[in-house]
User: Fold this.
Amino acid sequence: MPSAASNSPDTSYSPHLASSSIKAEEHNDRSSSTPTVSSSKQVAGASAGPDKEKPRLTEQEKKSNHIASEQKRRAAIRDGFDRLTELVPGLEGQGRSESIVLRKTVDFIELQIRERQELVAEIERRGGRVDETFRP
Assistant:
């Protein structure tokens, strides 16, 4: 599945960049995605007060944030599979094997597409006209 966060810039870790002596200010590189006070003021267009940076996150805070993000991601996936089991006939009340849910969902969608094609053909056979937006 595509990730919803695919629009975000690449934040992959590189040991070469981490160990280099290039100044972080030159590349606006931070160990946290939290914007600094100065950068948020620049974005907002305000320039009142001295430019102070927020303190960087501790390793424990980073770990806690990562764990919370991962739990949220997994919960969203679980909710999606639960929703599919409610929508796809034949999946209600079963245990949730993700591979079975996905396979039966694909089968159900393919069936729906075939039925739609048959309905469009029947309408046209009877002399009716079907708008292109309703064609599969």
